[in-house]
Amino acid sequence: MVFDENRIRASIIEEGLREAGHDRVVVLHDIVGLARQIERIAPDVIVIDIETPNRDMLEHLFQLSRSVRKPIAMFVDSSDTASIEAAVDAGVSAYVVDGLKKERVKPILDMAVSRFKAFSRLQQELAEAKSALEERKVIERAKGILMKSRTISEDEAYALLRQAAMNEKKKLADIAQSVVMAAAMLGS
Amino acid sequence: MDNGQGMGGGLAAPAAVRRDGVSVVRAGFIPLVDASVLIAAAEFGFAAREGIQLELVKDVSWANIRDRLAFRQFDIAHMLAPMPVASALGLGSNPSAVITPFTLGRGGNAITLSVKLYRRMQALADLAGDEGALANAEALKCVIDDIKVRGEPLPVLGTTYPFSSHNYELRYWLAAGGIHPDRDVKLVVVPPPMTSDALSAGAIDGFCVGAPWNMVAVAREVGRIVAVKEDIWPSSPEKVIGVRPEWADTNPETLARLIVALDRAAAWCDVPDNRRVLAEVLAEPRYIDAPEDILHRVLMGRFTTDPDGHERTVSDYFTFHRDGANFPWISQAQWIFSQMVRWGQVDHSKEKQEKVATAFRPDLYRHALGPRADIPSADVRVEGGQRQDGFIDGAVFDPQDIPAYLKGFNVHNLENPVATRDET
User: Fold this and answer.
1) Running DSSP on this structure, what letter comes out for residue A98?
2) Using a CB-CB distance cutoff of 8 angstroms, which residues of chain B are in contact with residue A82?
3) Sign of the C-alpha dihedral, residues A167, A169, A173, A175?
4) Is domain B109-235 annotated with CATH 3.40.190.10?
5) pLDDT digit string (tens) for B139-150?
6) CB-based contact (8 Å) between A125 and chain B?
7) How far is A74 from chain B (nearest CA, A)?
8) B contacts of A55 (beta carbons < 8 Å)
């Protein structure tokens, strides 16, 4: 999806994409109904004119609904290549380039899409890693409670938890959570 | 998220230093009156006196400002106070690390409704025209109740950016009047220079943006100002100077000199006699490109609130320096965070509150300006506790217990956070 009020630039981008074999290119010049258009077209990437103040409107849409959140690529004049690399390293999905030639459109967009995906994946992995850590903490606490209250070894406490999880067909972390909660309620 | 922090000092492009020892600092800005301190620092010699060549680059959207700062096209930028807070929380697209060592002042925003909507409020709630902001919000509530009974479309109100003081102020004002900003009205984003056109075309029924756009809508006889920022919370920080932490680390001396230059420029902007020449410069096409007369009246807080000619003077409509207006209170970053939680943009946790506290950097401000009587020694305070600092609904913000503070509000989105609304 190309969103650009500057029709000449939009057509350069469109041509570059078509020549690179992308035949599903949609060019929009008007902001009205943009959210609906994004939902309907489900674009792989949105190319936006950096000179349009309507970019903040797009930002608002992304905030409202994750389903319309897409990688964005932008084209502006920039002489500082180091800055672009730094931005890309930082995980941003947008990309800035010197001038605009149709041959360069495709590689840049590919880069924007892959960066966006890598960044989304990284965020997801972070969230997963965080919850794994939380689970391990709860299991440690449950083990400690069992060791203290039943005067058993760490291995025995772990075996007890695992056995209970198997019997109840629940996750180890869930069993551990109920042990911790029960202990808190019993005041031990 | 702290992505961006790990970009490595080796990659950092230091601010260019000219052969004569002058540092070149590139600053992005949006054409608004609250960029005055930055513009005055460049135009009236305050930056030059500190050995800084301040290059101002005009931009059109906050998302661009954020990204171009991250891309190192800018060294520093004129930013909405909630932007560094959103960055610290990893909210929005491309959240890269930004801190602020300097607030560009208070004031400047207002809420304007279409003359048509205001007339309906007058008819239903018997408004004479000189009511306060809270009475106006309550009158709007009457109209919305009526709109619902008749099955008419809900009013559409514009703000500037999802993480903006305008968004939180408009929501605060609506909620104080008993209006739910996500259920009783429709909020959209409209670029400030387009607000008058959107209002006269009927695309929106009102908006909350910065100066001079409210006054412009009144001058064009399409809008009616119903509240100003001072009515909602006088101490509310408006714009800040956004800096990448890695730039601050590699250019500590330039940053300190920049803060001194901004401090002097802010003090200059506060002197009423200087505001004529300030308005003259702001009016130029390379800056705000709006009528000088309107800019001057805005700077002096002399309002025409509606096309009937009602006048109102808000003496502190713009405070650029006085009463610690440039001090980046951590408690104000935390208040912004509390509103993000209130409206479901993010959920509350102790870790998040700690992250938010790193976005505002009073330590850098103090370090640059040295000990001075008017610089607070605390970083955190209870906000809205004093009479001249009160919130419109009388609430008091104690950053020690944000969940308890939020429980005090009847209108909120706590049970329906956006963060989880459409996750599948």
Assistant:
1) S
2) 11, 13, 72
3) negative
4) yes
5) 999 999 999 999
6) no
7) 10
8) 60-61, 63-64
Residue type, B314: V
- CA within 13 Å, CB half, B264: 16
The pairing of beta strand B186-189 with beta strand B239-243: unpaired
> What single DSSP character describes residue B220?
T
pLDDT of A37 strictly over 90: no
Amino acid identity of B411? Answer: V
Which architecture characterizes domain A129-186 according to CATH?
Answer: Orthogonal Bundle (1.10)
Q: A78, B73: Cβ pair inside 8 Å?
A: yes
**Using CA atoms, how far apart are residues B424 and B414, in angstroms rounded to an integer?**
20
As for the ipTM of the complex, it is 0.77
How much is the pLDDT for B51?
Answer: 96
Q: How far apart are CA A62 and CA A58, in angstroms?
A: 6
Of the candidates B271, B382, B266, the one whose C-alpha atom is nearest the C-alpha of residue B324 is: B266
Q: CA of B86, closest CA in chain A: separation in Å? A: 11
Contacts of B351 (CB under 8 A, 6+ apart): none
Per-residue pLDDT, averaged over B235-251, amounts to 95
CATH fourth-level superfamily of A2-126: Response regulator (3.40.50.2300)
Closest-CA residue of chain B to A58? B189
Q: Which CATH superfamily is domain B5-106+237-288+320-407 in?
A: Periplasmic binding protein-like II (3.40.190.10)
pTM: 0.79
The encoded tokens of residue A6 equal 């500057």
